[in-house]
Amino acid sequence: MDQQEWMGYVSRLANGEYPVPVGMIQDYNDWRCRSIVGRALYWMGDTESAMRVLSTVVNVEPNMDDDPEYGLAKSEEAALTYLKEAYDLSRAYKHSFHSCARGDMFYRRLMVLSEAGKTQQAVDEAKAMVEAEKDNNGVNPYKYFALKFLAEDAHNAGDDAKASEIYAEAFKYYPQNDIAERDLAKAAAEEDAAKRYKAYEFCSTVQYKPWEKQRPIVLRRGIDDK
Question: What is the pTM of this model?
Answer without folding.
Answer: 0.61
